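Progress against Task 2.4 (sequence-to-structure conversion) is shown through the following example record, which the project officer requested during the mid-term review.
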Amino acid sequence: MLTYKTQPKGSVSQGINTCQGCMIDVIFRNVLEIMGEDTVLVIPPGCSAQFSGCGPEASVTVPGIQGNLENSAAIAAGIAAGFKYQGNDHTQVVAIAGDGATVDIGLQSLSGAMERNDNILYICYDNEAYMNTGIQGSSSTPLAASTTTTPAGKPVNSKDLMQIVMAHHVPYAASASIANLPDLRKKVKKAKEIKGCRVLHIMSPCPTGWGYKMSKTVEVAREAIQNGAWVLMEYEDGKVKLGKKPSQLGDVEKYFSMQKRFKGVTPEEKDEVGRHLIERYEYLEKLAAL
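Structure tokens generated for the chain above:
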């Protein structure tokens, strides 16, 4: 049993047992600081399970529950329904899950919550693979990235979670990155004030799975924004709003060179990825112009 002499300030304790260079604790700290103590967390058994526990073994001070990998949105929806029955319209229900638990095995429960417009905030921290179980590829793993299940590089593009979310006509959805905390915090604050099903998609690079020095996490995430590998955007009331246009759109040379998972990528594959990023951004620009 873990013990402590003094209670640390904030909703997240010190000494989290995440990998060095992992930014999930930064996401948790910022989210819970904004959402406040009147919050219930739902966490699946992925990397974020580091924050669950019972009593002094828990890493967060707010109530929480760890479900199965596939049902975070369903559990959150059930809790929200219970609060509604009790007449409680103030307690926030927040699910925080990885990409595997969101775009793969958990997609149907998230789809149901979005279709019903359940009053929850669903946050996907995206490290683009099943990092907690051995760096297996997920549907969020990008084209050409090497994982233990795609050692020669993933042959297909990743699912576009934001497009899937927008197709459900939720009241608010946004993508964010640990490389831009002011933007992330602004979007969490906005999501807090909106009722219904809200979805945040946050890029959280993984030094263990991506193969870079633990001190370079923010730099890697920033490079992804600059070349369009990660697009900062919002979807609100049926309208798309893009952030600042990437300064090096489609140029993945530096980004790939920073990560071992792209070590075996050919020049042709780099060109293909670059073209895809440009085409995707141009499509989003058309949506934003509507």
